[in-house]
Amino acid sequence: MRPRQTRPRLIQAMLDAFRLPDLRRRLLFTFAMLVVFRFVAHVPLPGVDAEALKAFFESNAMLGFLDMFSGGAMKNFSVAAMGVYPYITASIIMTLMTPVIPRLQQISQEGEAGRNKINRITHWLMIPLAGIAGFGQIKLLEANGAIEPTSGLPMVAMIISIIAGTVFLVWLGEQITEYGIGNGVSIIIFGGIVAGYWETFGTGMLAGQQGQVVGLVSYALIMLATVALIVIFTEAHRRVPVQYARTTFRGGRMYRQSGGTHIPLRVNSAGMIPLIFAMSLVIFPGMIASYFANAPGEPANFANHIQNILSADAPLPLGLLYWGLYFMLVIGFAFFYTMVMFQQQDLPGTLQRQGGFIPGIRPGKNTSTYLNHVINRITTVGALFLAFVAIIPFLARTVTNVQAIQLSSMGLLIVVGVVLDTMKQMEAQLTMRRYEGFIK
After folding, report:
1. Separation CA 414–CA 409 (nearest Å)
2. What is the pLDDT along the chain (440 residues), one digit of tens a residue?
3. Is 421 within a domain?
4. Are 20 and 433 spatial neighbours (Cβ–Cβ below 8 Å)?
5. Which of 153, 187, 208 is a domain's end point?
6. b/e 411-429 (16+ beta carbons within 10 angstroms → b)
7. CATH number assigned to the domain comprising residue 291
8. Domain range holding 138?
9. 94, 57: one domain
10. H/E segment holding residue 217
11. How far apart, in whole angstroms, are the C-alpha atoms of residue 370 and residue 241?
12. Judgement on whether residues 137 and 233 belong to the same structural domain of the protein
């Protein structure tokens, strides 16, 4: 056995990729774009009080959680404060609206040209979403004294800067997709999350120096176990066997051809989307209440009580309401999103048009009923997995009593998914070149 076969797959793939000039160029281009992204994330908007901003984020656990996804860009209130999430939101809206709006459904069936039109509409929708999110963020920081009150032209300039930062990051992601390795937008999100983890675990190490070494080690073990669980369920799928029977005519004679394959139905086909939807609904009441709550030191009003009840940091037993609601919403959205995506794919119709059938199942309605039954069964497992991963931060904090580290289940899902997807793309490129004789 050759020595290189004993190395881990990812390390060996990286070494093989750097031996090839074109793949090496793609990897270096991806790293260069990530460096540009990190530079932009530290370009602040004018009128920001850095100390007040830092104190505000430290006092608000939810904003600190969102800041991790931007890699510190939100805490610095840079031009990239919104990251690529307005684009992600626009993509989700278009995905949900396409099967509902007949015109969008017609466009989506026009092949490559239709996909380009949908992508163009998504880009245009991203702009107002980034502007609205930026305006809301500015007003929230103004209300808490983190930035100076602005209006008129300065406000317009800040909103345009935030929109420009989002558009620039999406453009960087598209350049990575075309000239680099992996899905560019996912790589940008990955870079922000990983950058945010450095500061988070630095704080955790300080906590360990204060006598929480055992809890910190337990926390790290829970995190590693969570990563392993995510990898298993991300790769898990149910194979539905499919047979094809085709009739062709050659030289005036009829020939029957048959073949077999399978449809891989993923256990977690919804990905992280249910977590995003569920968290948005859970934090929405508390976010609205923050605008009407009394300042610290004043008598608590109804809005203050809503904030305390629907808070991720609420002590037991109040914390059970927040995390229990989160758990149930993740399950519900996992089923909803999976069913929407499954209906949009129209697998029974595609099989019938291509002359395929599932052995023992009649084509048409029976095939649709069978596939729906299979999807419901595996989605039950996938939804419970997502819901369990969603509440792991609460379980880890409760078991280990480590408060300094905020484990993000959504962040881990994104990081693991991006790494697996990038590794598969890299190995596919290497396999193609080995087949063509480029790697000896």
Report:
1. 9
2. 344 444 556 666 667 777 778 888 888 898 899 889 888 888 877 766 666 676 666 666 556 656 665 656 677 778 888 888 888 888 888 887 887 888 888 887 777 888 888 889 999 999 998 888 888 778 777 766 667 777 778 888 888 988 998 899 999 989 998 888 878 888 888 887 777 666 666 555 555 545 566 767 777 788 888 888 888 888 888 888 888 766 555 655 654 555 667 788 888 887 777 887 787 777 777 767 766 766 666 677 777 777 777 776 666 777 788 888 888 988 988 888 888 778 777 788 777 777 777 888 888 788 888 888 888 888 898 889 888 888 887 787 777 776 555 667 777 787 888 888 888 777 777 777 665 554 44
3. no
4. yes
5. 208
6. bbbbbbbbeebbbeebbeb
7. 1.10.3370.10
8. 1-208
9. yes
10. helix 213-235
11. 12
12. no
Tokens of 50: 């850095």
Cβ-based neighbours of 56, under 8 Å, separated by 6 or more: 63, 141, 144, 145, 146
DSSP 69-134: HTTTTTTTTBTTTTTTHHHHHHHHHHHHHTTTSHHHHHHHTSTHHHHHHHHHHHHHHHHHHHHHHH
Count of domains observed in the chain: 2
Is 373 part of a structural domain of the chain?
Answer: yes
| CA–CA distances in Å: residue 99 to residues 61, 86, 95, 276 | 37, 21, 8, 21
One domain, residues 222 and 314:
yes
Instruction: For residue 242, give both structure tokens.
Output: 């499919």
Q: How far apart are CA 351 and CA 346, in angstroms?
A: 9
Alpha-carbon span 59 to 145, nearest angstrom: 13
Q: Cα–Cα distance between 262 and 78 in angstroms, integer?
A: 48
Last residue of a domain, one of 146, 173, 208: 208
- Same domain, residue pair 142 and 91: yes
Alpha-carbon gap, residue 12 to 4, rounded angstroms: 7
Distance between CA atoms of residues 171 and 165, nearest Å: 10
Q: Which two tokens stand for residue 84?
A: 């690529």
